[in-house]
Design goal:
Order of helices and strands: HHHH
Number of strands: 0
Shape: elongated
Largest sheet: none
Number of helices: 4
CATH topology: Bromodomain-like
Structural class: mainly alpha
CATH architecture: Up-down Bundle
CATH class: Mainly Alpha
Number of domains: 1
Length: 144
């Protein structure tokens, strides 16, 4: 019987998380009609390619997929952290947001604390953890 590659589970987890981020952001903007702010657009720019890169890496059986998506995850996480700091008013906004879609507008609030910027932070953080886990599994496999 063929052994299951241990690396496939975190890679598929990253794929599912990135697809959830893509469809979640499209649901909020296109179905619920929440206008995305400037910082949301930057986070989308870094979330959307991740699923395509992972899918291509799986199709081509690439060993470097995690190295390719690491910069997208890292930069997206930086924008997400900054967005949360602005949203929760820890810092003042540096990037000017538009009047029609301010970066601090509360469009969603589940359980009194789960907001759209926080969902993005959770998504990018989970992607980073799974990405680093997969890179660690790769390095262990290479050293054996």
């Amino acid at each position: 019987m063929k052994e299951i590659n241990k690396k496939i589970i975190p890679i598929m987890g990253q794929f599912v998380i990135s697809l959830t981020g893509i469809f979640g952001s499209l649901f909020f903007s296109e179905v619920m009609k929440f206008p995305p702010c400037e910082l949301c657009w930057y986070q989308r720019i870094f979330m959307y390619p991740i699923a395509l890169i992972i899918l291509t890496g799986l199709f081509l059986d690439s060993k470097d997929t995690n190295k390719f998506i690491f910069p997208f995850i890292s930069i997206g996480l930086i924008f997400s952290i900054y967005h949360n700091l602005v949203y929760y008013k820890f810092i003042q906004v540096i990037v000017p947001c538009s009047e029609s879609a301010p970066c601090t507008a509360e469009q969603l609030n589940y359980l009194g604390f789960v907001t759209i910027p926080l969902l993005s932070l959770f998504g990018f953080s989970a992607l980073l953890v799974l990405n680093l886990l997969t890179i660690k599994l790769d390095s262990k496999k290479g050293s054996i």
